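Quick log. Single chain, no ligands specified.
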Amino acid sequence: MTQQASIRSYLNQAYLFGLLMVAVGLTLSPFLMGMSQFWIVIVWVIDGIVGKDFNQKRSRFWQNKAAVLLVAFYLMHVVGLLWTSDFQYAMKDLRVKLPILILPFVMASLQPLDRKRFDFVMLVYVLSAFVATMFSFSSYIRHDYEDVREISRFISHIRFCLNIVLCIAVIGYCLFTRKSQWWSKIVQVLLLLWFVYQIFIFESLSGYVVFGAVVIVSAIYAFLQWKKGRGWRIAMAVSAVAVLLFGTIVLLREIKPLLKVETVDFSTLEQTTAQGNPYWHDTIFNPVEDGKFVGLYYCKQEMQEAWPKRSQLPFDGTTTNGENLEATIARYLTSKDLRKDFNGIMALTDEDIRNIEQGVANYNNWKHPGLHARLSATLFEYNLYRRFNNPNGGSLSQRIEFTRAASHIIRRHPIFGVGTGDVPQAFSQTYDEIQSPLNEAFRFRAHNQYLSIMIAFGAVGLLLFLVALLFPWFSDKKNRTFLYTVFLCIMLLSMLPEDTLETQAGATMFAFFTAFLLFASPKE
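-> predicted structure:
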């Protein structure tokens, strides 16, 4: 072996190490997510110097139209500096989305991996996600959280759930397509069930929806391949349909009780408290919590008297996370079937008091997180917004306001948008213009990647973005592999309720797996 060949062999190992760093960093370390990309670029440069093949690398890149489109999408952000005013935010946005420039360019210009190395990277990715879930589950079983979504230690719970869903798809694919010993199959099944359980406890509506969509896509993909006559496709299709039916049954079972509202006979309601003070019974101006009216058996006078005996927070103030304290107390008491009076507050445990102070409004949702808790909270938020035009603190209702503001901005800048850095500024001005009921603390961006792109770059930018997303799948049948199809589905859906590319974790996941599954995967 020549010296040059020996050096390039080491560089190939270094490149693989860089890919492994990304795979680990996606769920365990934001530092590795950034550092790995600089490592990959350095390896690419050294390899080009040693091999004297920069022209060949450049040629491979330009011949790959999908990679060119992804890089063009990033460069659109650079062009958007021409009509922006907030360069500080623009530079931050360019830095966050840098993986969309680096990873497609590097992977498209290098030779694909062999099957063994490709599989090894995927294995490390799945195992890293498993380790991350162990950290989150440790917090979960110790109840070390105010909101269960806080148990995601290293990245946001939404991006973490997207990674978990992708891991489920990877394991399921290997389970049905790769030959392995019986004990290995058992491990894969257990790992698959573990990841599904993690999706369940995270209370992420995005995670639930994306997981359901992946199951549907898996079933469709398998049925379309049925004619090729391989047994794994039949087994995969049947399994996906079974999971989908089971999930539908569970969803209906969970949501049905939440839609029932208790029947109130005012003639049978007690009118005074144990201390002789009058109750206020209301079914109009107070919301419904888990099918029960928060406004029944309500005595504000006694709550004001009892609360200082249990807490240092002022009754007419806010919780530590900024929620109205009186409303939180009333909701929490309702969830524990306690009356809103002196005895009700005194019956609360010290743990209950800490929960209320931290903004926990429903004991059952805090004690038993999962699908039921997420549906309960979402339904409460929606009813609060529909009846009282109050979107504050509600994940779903706030997004309605975000979309309303986004639509207003788009109407004013339909063609080229407001520029790379002026999106936050445009939202800040628009919330005042449309007199949004959102409090200042909740006035966020669009939480929709498609709207964010159109706000920044107009219809022209959105068109380029959609072409960059969809072109690889539609342009070449070889790209319509199961894993890439599932990943594309995950990304397309995640961008509806979230600005997926506006965070390091989201942008890196998108750029890495798009490039890895399209450009670095084995050719066979």
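The chain has a mean pLDDT of 87.
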